Amino acid sequence: MKHHEEYTVRGDTEIIADIKSGKAAAVDELIKKYQKRVYNTAYGLTLDYDEAWDVSQEAMVKLVRYIGSFRGDSSFWTFLYRVIMNTFYDHKRRQKARAKIGDFTSYENDDDKRPFEIKDVIDIEQDYEQKVLKEKLKGALGLLTDAQKKVFVLKNTEGLKIREVAAILGMSDGTVKSHLNRAVDKIKKELGGGES
Question: Where are any strands of DSSP class E within 51-178?
């Protein structure tokens, strides 16, 4: 009776092929495989638990919607990271528009039209809250520029190599190192570890 839990061993290519051929179970499989990475990345960008939740749910919906355009030219995580980034920027644009409109409540709500309910397969907040980014670090991350934050989140939350971060962000290795060094210096100083 083991074969039921062995799905995580399957590679992305197999899972994606199943999704493209219409197998609904493969969608849940992909979500379960990447849910924590997506949430952690979204949190690193938003620095807010609720916003990260919204961005990660929306990113997963977009991922399933646009999975057909993934051709395997880059790694699947690179493709997924770009979906998260686009979702994050869409989210920020909507927030700005909403702030201008004030209390006007006619913005769209797609919740009812979603093909699946991500809440059902995600159970992240408890363990994430315990071990990743304490309050002081959260404050320090808030001081980083957009580029520094993206580089720092990918390098440290994801543990990617400089070359991989550079490929995902479309920067040179040197630019990534420069942003990373500045980010680390700012964070050390904010956490009281820098001597200036």
Answer: none
Are residues 158 and 34 in contact, defined by beta-carbon separation less than 8 angstroms? no
Q: For residue range 145-193, list pLDDT tens digits in order.
A: 889 988 988 887 777 889 988 988 889 999 999 999 998 888 888 777 5
Query: 57 and 151: one domain?
Result: no
Q: What is the CATH number of the domain that holds 195?
A: 1.10.10.10
Contacts of 56 (CB under 8 A, 6+ apart): 35, 38, 39, 42, 84, 118, 122
The owner of tokens 């528009």 is 97
Cα→Cα distances 8→30, 109, 164, Å? 9, 32, 23
Q: What is the C-alpha to C-alpha distance for residues 55 and 90, in angstroms, rounded to an integer?
A: 9
Domain edge (last residue) among 109, 131, 153 = 131
- The C-alpha atoms of residue 157 and residue 13 are separated, in whole angstroms, by 24
Q: What's the rounded Cα separation, in Å, for the pair 109 and 17?
A: 30
The structure's pTM equals: 0.62
User: pLDDT tens digits for 94-153?
Assistant: 887 776 655 444 444 444 444 444 444 444 455 554 555 566 777 777 888 889 988 988
CATH code of the domain containing 5 = 1.10.1740.10
Residues 6 or more apart whose CB falls under 8 angstroms from that of 23 comprise none
What are the structure tokens assigned to 142, written together? 């808030």
How is residue 37 written in tokens? 């990475």
